[in-house]
Amino acid sequence: MGRLADVALFACGLYVSLRLIAAGYRILDLWYTIGTAYPKVIRGILGWGGLATALALALGGPRRAAFLLGMLAFLLFYLSLYALRYLVVRRPAPLE
Looking at the whole model, is its pTM more than 0.85? Predict the structure, then answer.
C-alpha cells in the first residue's frame, strides 16, 4: 500500500504544480479586464499555492518527498518545454 500512496501523491504533486502554473498565467489571460478580475486571479493563486503548502506541511517523511518530487518533476518538464521552444527549435535561415 505504501508504493501506491507514493505514486498517488506524486501524481497529486504533478496536478497541483500544473494548476499553480496555470493560476499564474491567469494574470496574463485576464489582463484586459484585470480591474474587475483581480479577485479571481488572486483567489486562484492563493488557493492553489495554499493547497500545495498545506499538503507539503501536512505530509510527513517519504510521503512529503513523493508529493514535492511530483511538483518538481512537472516544473522541470514545463521548463524543458520552454527551453526547447526557444533554444532548440530551428529558426529559418535569413534571406540573402
Answer: no
